[in-house]
Amino acid sequence: MTGGVRLDLNFSDFQAQLFSLDADELRQAVKTLRKISVLGWHQVYTDHGLKWEELKSMKGRFTIRVTRRCRAVVTREGEFMRFLALHFDHDSAYGRK
């Protein structure tokens, strides 16, 4: 199938974190999610704004920039990008303290 990356936003921890964002952060996050939904996977991997990075400590998990202050931990499963968590502390997104 061609077209945009499909988003899976159904993980309960991610939803709780997303719904707790203030209005400005939530607008930025939704803007990023819309952007991802029209990109192909190659574009996601190379987009400088998203800054796709693999977590060395957790194979198969990646981080992307969702807002200026926030990164999401995601996985790729086929055409789906599954959102697992949001992190405001850059190091916590990478499993560091």
Can you walk me through this structure?
This protein has 97 residues and is an alpha+beta fold. The protein has a single domain (6-93), classed as 2-Layer Sandwich (YaeB-like fold), CATH 3.30.2310.20. The protein is 35% helix and 25% strand. The chain has helices at 12-19, 23-38, 41-46, 90-93; strands spanning 6-8, 53-54, 62-65, 71-77, 80-87. The protein has a five-stranded mixed β-sheet. The radius of gyration is 13 Å and the shape is globular. The model has no long low-confidence stretch (mean pLDDT 90).
Q: Quote the average pLDDT.
A: 90
Number of strands: 5
CATH superfamily: RelE-like
Distance between the termini: 40 Å
Nutshell version of this structure?
With 97 residues, this protein is of the alpha+beta class. It contains four helices and five strands; from the N terminus they run E-H-H-H-E-E-E-E-H. Strands 1-5-4-3-2 form a five-stranded mixed beta sheet.
Please outline the helices and strands.
Layout: E1 6-8, H1 12-19, H2 23-38, H3 41-46, E2 53-54, E3 62-65, E4 71-77, E5 80-87, H4 90-93
Parallel strand pairs: 1-5
Antiparallel strand pairs: 2-3, 3-4, 4-5
